Amino acid sequence: MTLHHGASGPVPPVALTMGEPAGIGPEIATKAFGALQGDVPFFLIGDPSHLPGSVAFTPIERPSDALGATTLPVLPHNFASPRVPGEAQPEHAQPVIDVIARAVELTQQGQALAVCTNPINKKALKDGAGFPFPGHTEYLSHLAGDADVVMMLACDELRVVPATIHIALSDVPTQLTREKLTQVIRTTHAALIRDFGHATPRIAVAGLNPHAGEGGTMGMDEIDMITPLLDDLRTEGLDLLGPLPADTMFHASARAGYDAAVCMYHDQALIPIKTIDFAGGVNVTLGLPFVRTSPDHGTAYDIAGSGKADATSLINALRMAHQLGLARRNEDNS
Which sites bind substrate (predicted)? Predict the structure, then answer.
């Protein structure tokens, strides 16, 4: 494996969490190492006994030991019981949570370049350990001191940001406040500059209602809140399009006009990106003091242990974690 060097010495590897061990995390971590060896240095945090039986791995004591490893480097974390593919076990819940916190701590200490997280099962964590967070994004915000965070889904053709995430559709109109939408747009704008290299980002903003309200005939949210908010942000110098009808924002010629799209709710953002690149999309958490990415899929219990899992999204997530981590590191050292 090639050693990557920066202005302050060797670049640390990316910390990859095992995620839910009963899911496909162990398998795709192994496949990702085979695909990325010599390109993106990373190490896995988890129980080595949860890896597929024939996998060669290198146990490490510290993240730097992963640099130059020729088999999958694993920072051991004891789970105390074997995995059963496809069956979440309550006793695994707390170690899954602890692994995430450990990855964040190593990254904040500078021992890891960035965090990449394999999928978790939120219900399993709630049932087994009383996990109080809707998902990774909210837990990472908590670990970062309740940072204002935003979830971005990214692929080569599209970047989307849902302004509201893991809530019922019926709750969106009340949760989509002026303050919330302002924070999402500003966080997206700052991340496009800092992490993605766009000096003057162009952001498209969807309307909430069909046809972006069509002049108030299909809803007043655009007239009452979204349009005035965008006008105010434009006076600050933000380059914003919208509010736009969501059904005409995502064809190829429309996508060429912006660097990211802010959508009003979960499915409005995720349906287009998963249609465009179902296997390759990456989840990026914006607004954290460290870089975090994740594959854009779940635990896939139905194929866990079968050897059929597609590692494309994790491979892309690790590449992006490395790229964004290097950008942060170069900026901090400049």
Answer: 136-137, 274, 283, 292
